[in-house]
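Most newcomers find our protein records easier to grasp once they have seen one. The structure tokens are whole numbers drawn from a learned vocabulary of backbone shapes. The record below serves as our worked example for the rest of this section.
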Amino acid sequence: MAWTQADLDTINQAIATGAKRVRFQTHEVEYQSLKDMLIARDLIKSEVEGTSDRGGAIFVEYGGGY
């Protein structure tokens, strides 16, 4: 699911009002704690703002000398 600015606004409003149940575009989530909501909010925010590291390539260098 691609996160949108509307999703970020929705979770921010829920955090501000103390709600633990949030309805996003296609589903509803009930968070167990404020900490869980803040983690989700940060993930959504990073994707919306384009600062997410997800999907990048990882390169590993192995030492030679067999």
Notes: Strands lie at 21-23, 28-30. The radius of gyration is 17 Å. The helical segments are 5-17, 34-48.
